[in-house]
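Reading a protein record of the kind used here takes only a little practice. An example makes this concrete, so a full record is given next.
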Amino acid sequence: METAARPERPAKRPITVSDMLGIRNIGSSERGEESRIFAISPERSHIAFFVTQADVAGNTICRALVSMPLQPGATPQVLDVGGQPIFEDVAVRGLQTDYGYPAEDIPVWSPDGQWLAYRKREEGVTELWRVRVDGTQAARVARLPADVAAVAWTSDGKRLIAAMFAEIAEAKERRDFEGLSGYRYDDRFVPYNDTIPSVEMSGRLDFVKVSPETGAVVPASADEARLVQTTALPTSDEELLRTARNPQNETLETRLRDPEQLFKRFDLWARLKNGRDIRCTAVQCSGSVFDPINRIWWSRDGRDALILRRDGWGASETALFRWSPHQSSFQKIFRTSDLLAGCEMVKEGLICGRESSGYPRRLVNIDTRSGESTVLWDPNPTFAKIEKGRVTRLHWRNEFGAENFGDLVVPPGRRNGEAIPLVVVQYNTRGFLRGGTGDEYPIWLFAQRGFAVLSVQKSRSYISQVPDSALSDWAVAHAQAYTEYKEQRNQVSSITAGVEKAISMGIADSERIGITGLSAGSSTAIYALLNTSMFSAAALSSMGIDPDSMVYGGARLRNFRIKEGYPTVAKENPSFWRHTALAVNADRFQTPLLMQLGSRESLLGIEAFEALRAHHRPVEMFVFANEGHLKWQPAHRAAIYERNLDWFDFWLKNKIDPAKAKIEQYRAWQGLREEATSDLKAGT
């Protein structure tokens, strides 16, 4: 008897730089999973959201406002396109900073479901727009005196309420006037960021009421201002508190045990219609400033509480729990290592952005009774046809006993027993593996080039493991964390333990290990490079703390660091810097180092670069114009991706790309290698 041949699965193709940079995004991967990513229509049948995609050739971000029905297989309808990226106004030590942090950006439905209001940034100004849900009549509503921070509709749908950061615009006007007679150098200056003072940012919002028909603008009342949801500058207490109300007017809420407690802890309570208060006694119903609950809801029938939070080893998973205050029952509905972003309850389902380590974010509906997940829309269907490699979630402990985890990516085609070069990428490994925090070290592209990659999750802070009864305030807590370099050791021992695990598995070659980092990850990488002999090459996206940073960071950063135990500018302390600063250690530092810095932070890298070059160490530094802490320009990101890949290829695999455009790059790197080798032979 003949049998029909099984159809062959189409061969998957290798992943490319264009695949990674061309991902269509719903929300931002840099924001936490609690951040909202879509808006639900009043009848709860449709959602609206923004889709963004990098355009490398145009060096811009394409942006589209879309809506779609909440049903599998639906196709989003494009309502409006265009506009520049909108970034969060970030206060760093009370000063407004061009950080590059993407804003939470969602539209707002009108009460009748016929219009969407939203923010749109053009020519450097963030304005208030609206569009009909059929995609017609997209237009600016009014020209307002400051950037719009958030928007809401009045209950009758006839007016819009806009929140503005007017204080920033006003402060910049005062600063410009002050500049006519010269700026007094004081603690407003952050020299590495700018040569003029930064403006104070308290978080004050100004609210106006706007007629969408005439554009007329009047001040909003206090009640109208409360209609606006904004993520601007929440307090630590607000970050912990969650509430939900059911149709029976019963309330779920997280309550602080002691508002005066340094490390605030909370429990979940239900207040029933009979006035009775019931505390959920399950461990998953309690938490702290280090271990919050993501979201809480009432079930559709209003009888059960649904609790979404991190769970499992080192909080590496996300779980949904059901608690019945009326029956005192508690159960787990599901647990996943996937990232669930911006979840909202609709009927019996959770609508979420869901992403796995190997697949970008999709919109899904998760049944809150069974935990089963149904894909509503996949903006990147071609990823199912791409070969990326294999990923394994690893667990381990660091020197302080903290639970740590990471994702070990192994390239396709690796032979069993073959030990290969490994690159460490920091410091968030939840969800789709892009390029670590800041997205500059493309994990799947490293795997495509034959590297193993260990994507590590930042360890819980050292102070989170110390009883707060021993600490009087945050300054004392930070000082204790940095005494004897405990926090640095906490993070570095997490990385080295993970690398050692990859080596023991026979995957990583112990002689060819690289490390990367941005922000806190950069400081961790520098400490690891200076205090261990594990790493043979490194790349950094920002700099750590060298002695000159105590000057270039300005008075506020300097005072903050001194509270952490750093030496003052007037008091030299070579023994302190010997463990933490590249510039001070240039005489003994041998590791090839690539620095790719945003222009607004590049001054912090010059001391280390010049010191290393003076000692003929293999170091390169590139500066990217008009970039802050997080780099966003697609052309820059493409160049950063490519150079990071080439750098580790060159130093860990002795491999070069023969492309003509890279001849000068490799000539320079070969010169660095020869110079460093010559100095080593000479004993300098």
